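As a point of orientation, let us examine one representative protein, giving the amino acid sequence and backbone structure tokens.
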Amino acid sequence: DPKALEELVLRYTPLTRGLIYSFLGPTGETDDILQEVFYQTLRSLRHLKEPGKFNSWLYKITRRVSNAWRRQRRDSVPLDDLPEVEARPEGIPDEDREREQTLGQVRRMVQGLPDIYREVVILRYFNKVDYETMADMLELTPSAVNARLVKARKILRRRLDPLHREGLFHG
């Protein structure tokens, strides 16, 4: 059913895009990976036994596709090694430029977290996924999700504190 497919893609694209980001960081191939995730999702939809578990099922497919993409690209240049390009014209207000720099610093800090902490931070704070849904997706209890978030915030706070003291982080 083409209409159902369109609805599925529209509904789950933001979440899936966020998951891809949590697994791989920023990449110019997100749309290709997203397309592959939905292709594999549709191909195997008939195997989904419990429709109520769709989120966790989609999460697993996204993780599998992202891991395969990472393995295929091991020899490529990491995006962190590429020079940053000024994406905005010079005429933007200093406050906006500062805000963008701060957001960039936070994103890099989050990307530097170990996988188990990075994924819960991105799911919660970037994708606004609730604890119950995260628990289902990650096959954890809500208290385990909370524990990971607490640990992730502690790691981020510890990493951000020296930057605050040195005046390198404006947040």
